Amino acid sequence: MIYTVTVNPALDYVIQLDKVDSGNVNRSNNCSFLAGGKGINVSQILNQLEIDNTAWGFVGGFTGKELVRQLNQRRIVNDFVTISDDTRVNVKVHAQDETEINAAGPNITDQEITAFKSRMSDLQKGDIVVLSGSLAPSLPVDFYKELLPEIKEAGAEFVIDTTGQALLDTLSYKPLVIKPNHHELAELFNTTFDSDQDMLECARKLLDMGAQNVMVSMAGKGGYLITKDHFYHAKGAVGTAVNSVGAGDSMIAGFVGTYVKTNDPAESFRIGMACGAATAFTKDIAVMRQIEAVLPQINVEQLS
Q: What whole-number distance in Å separates Cα of residue 123 and Cα of residue 218?
């Protein structure tokens, strides 16, 4: 089983209009509420790949009920901890520019945190936990790290999608895969890259620090996979990028879902690249027909 963790999900209130006239009354052409969150995005792609998964996290209030209703409607299996505070609402304004106003998130009590951590007792050997997304302000900054000893003790694997020191602090627990983009990778080592070879050497350092596999995404320029045995490269698919939200989550989902079935990092990387590109080429999280349309473009080359 794959468990996706979204500890600070949101209802995204998406407002569409031709133009925002600041300081005056504006009228929307269309608006909608959409369940959002990085782990939820991962679950959507896993469902498209027909990989069993369960979404974990915290939800509360009328907004939390609507979020769960939407997940149930999409047939995303979920087991969230119900909290007393309301799930946040993020506002997305699509006009002449795209503007986002993201709320910080609910207050989560110690008792609710304990209830969530009890989910770890469900883990079995071979399970994978995908930890991704921002933390609610009331959660400790090392919340993800606190979960890792029990995950590893159960014989499960974990994937973490975060950046900076929070990512580095998890590497000794040997994440199955991490996915910094090339900018984030440079920031981890406070450097700049003069060549792809410089970038690959930094990625290799993350393996030496504990990561089992490192994917480096480079948007339209493709990406690299670094394993303990090989370096792989895949060129980016050709298409019009209309959406950056969820592309990285889709890439992780494609890798993890394929790895569960094949235990093959290179094939997992190929599917991950296709899932990421397919989502980038659509205004929502990609569906299977879109992934299949992109897949023939993704060729993985072993460099060493």
A: 33
Whole-number Å distance between alpha carbons of 27 and 204: 51
8 Å CB contact between 233 and 222: yes
Task: For the chain, give the percent of residues with pLDDT over 70.
Answer: 100
Q: For 82-139, write each residue's pLDDT tens digit.
A: 999 999 999 989 888 888 899 999 999 999 999 999 999 999 999 999 999 889 999 9
How far apart are alpha carbons 150 and 198 in whole angstroms? 36
**Intra-chain end-to-end CA distance of the chain, in Å:** 32
Catalytic residue among 229, 249, 264, 284: 249
What percentage of residues in the chain have a pLDDT greater than 90? Answer: 80
Please answer whether residues 292 and 257 qualify as being in contact, where contact means their C-beta atoms are separated by less than 8 angstroms.
no
pTM of this prediction exceeds 0.90? yes
Contacting residues for 170 by C-beta, under 8 A, at least 6 apart: 144, 145, 148, 158, 160, 162
Q: What angle do CA 251, 132, 292 make, to 5 degrees?
A: 20
The whole-number average pLDDT for the span 218-242 is 89
Arithmetic mean of pLDDT over the chain? 93
Sheet with 231-234, side-by-side order of all strands = 213-217, 223-227, 231-234, 300-302
Q: What is the Cα–Cα distance from 259 to 255, expressed in whole angstroms?
A: 6
Rg value, the chain, Cα: 19
110 a catalytic residue: no
